[in-house]
Write a structure and sequence with these properties.
alpha+beta, two-stranded antiparallel sheet, two-stranded antiparallel ribbon, about 25% helix, about 25% strand
Length: about 90
């Protein structure tokens, strides 16, 4: 992922370059109300649900702690307790 972001950054103006990123612990899913049925991102909902992660990207933190439960379509639940690494791209 980092290699692809660095490559994309080469063609972007400085103000639009990705400086930090993290990989989420799951894919966005319509069943979790993160996407519409036509796979469009529900930005307001995602912003609220992942606020702690978004906020961490705007700090000097190297990681963000996540302690949450996700529910699958079939009713099963999985508890996630992890530290997500924040990757800082030195050259933007």
């Amino acid at each position: 992922m980092e290699k692809q972001i660095r490559q994309a950054n080469q063609d972007l103006p400085d103000a639009a370059k990705v400086v930090k990123f993290t990989n989420l612990y799951k894919e966005f899913d319509a069943d979790d109300d993160e996407l519409t049925r036509t796979r469009k991102l529900r930005r307001a909902f995602v912003e609220k649900r992942y606020r702690v992660i978004v906020d961490a990207l705007y700090t000097a933190a190297d990681s963000v702690h996540i302690d949450t439960t996700i529910k699958y379509e079939d009713g099963r639940e999985a508890h996630i307790n992890t530290d997500m690494r924040i990757i800082h791209l030195a050259d933007g």
